[in-house]
Design a protein that fits this description.
This protein is mainly alpha-helical and about 325 residues long. It has 16 helices and 2 strands. About 0% of the residues have low confidence.
């Protein structure tokens, strides 16, 4: 399977510069902040978003210093959002590792998240590209709106698929589409290529979230870092369950809706909802959506010439769809 590590070989020299500059951007003389930053750097993930930023630029023209700066801004913003999310969710672990708030408590975590958000905006200004600054600035608003929208519709079982996609496009997709957007903006891509790469990023983000939602029904906590059924317990109506409910008879639907609306649902209720979604085609339908989106992404990138960078973009999408955690 294509992996992020393989994608990095296409931008090997560029990624070395990014890694060095990203690490340097966390330098600080304040002892407490230095300790937290060091902890964050030790736990950094695959860094798919800045990889997308650099691949997007390279697939169109090439990676420049402003591309690197834009990628750093995206990854810092992503890191800040994860820290804030863990505080909101009262999460003690992420991907099997202790969260910042589990180690330093909420007050420090929120301040560090705010610090990284500010650093992301400062780094964006260093590109001297107003469109990049505008794109990075918009992400925080979109993420917050997406999360608040999701909270507002929790425990409501009368949702439509369009609403689900609207939520995940904001709460997850915007970081991926922005990662691709700023990559294209950094090398002043023409309108058609900019539009295509942004749409690809949007599709990438949708696929990423749908895959995560599937994990809530069929995976294990050891693989994904959270218990199966976590979303259901929080009243989140994700695609597998949404599809199954919309395809069942009215009597069964009403029975299950009563379970979903109960904020104190039991473990047996959660298992019942999971089994219902799995047995009534929710997983198969969600996977079908993934492959439909994948085919759409391939067509979207037709505007770009064939290159290793373009192949890597599509390879990363394939990885996102087929990953097991």
């Amino acid at each position: 399977m294509f992996t992020p590590e393989r994608a990095k070989t296409v931008i090997e020299k560029e990624f070395e510069v990014f890694s060095r500059e990203f690490t340097n951007s966390f330098d600080n003389d304040t002892e407490l902040l230095k300790s937290v930053n060091s902890y964050i750097l030790q736990r950094k993930g695959k860094q798919i978003r800045p990889i997308l930023t650099m691949l997007s630029a390279k697939a169109i023209k090439g990676v420049e210093l402003s591309t690197i700066k834009a990628g750093i801004a995206v990854e810092m913003l992503h890191t800040a959002s994860l820290i804030h999310d863990d505080v909101v969710d009262e999460a003690d672990s992420r991907r099997g590792q202790s969260t910042v708030n589990a180690v330093w408590k909420n007050r420090i975590s929120i301040l560090v998240g705010d610090y990284l958000l500010s650093k992301a905006l400062i780094t964006a200004t260093e590109t001297e590209n107003f469109d990049i600054v505008k794109a990075i600035s918009n992400v925080g608003k979109e993420l917050s709106e997406g999360e608040l929208h999701e909270i507002g519709i929790a425990y409501k079982a009368d949702l439509q698929e369009d609403t689900y996609f609207e939520v995940i496009r904001k709460k997850t997709g915007v970081l991926f589409s922005t990662a691709c957007r700023v990559g294209a903006l950094s090398i002043k891509a023409d309108v058609d290529k900019l539009k295509a790469i942004v749409e690809f990023g949007d599709i990438f983000g949708l696929c990423f979230q749908i895959k995560d939602d599937i994990f809530d029904y069929v995976s294990t906590s050891e693989k994904i870092g959270k218990p199966v059924g976590c979303d259901i317990k929080e009243g989140k109506m994700t695609l597998p369950l949404l599809y199954a409910l919309n395809k069942t008879d009215e009597s069964t639907r009403n029975e299950l809706i009563s379970l979903i609306k109960d904020e104190g649902m039991s473990e047996n209720d959660v298992k019942k909802l999971i089994n219902f979604a799995v047995e009534n085609g929710g997983i198969e339908y969600s996977k079908q959506k993934l492959y439909e989106l994948k085919n759409k992404a391939i067509k979207v990138l037709d505007v770009l010439e064939e290159s290793d960078a373009k192949k890597a973009l599509l390879g990363l999408l394939e990885f996102t769809i087929e990953r097991e955690k």
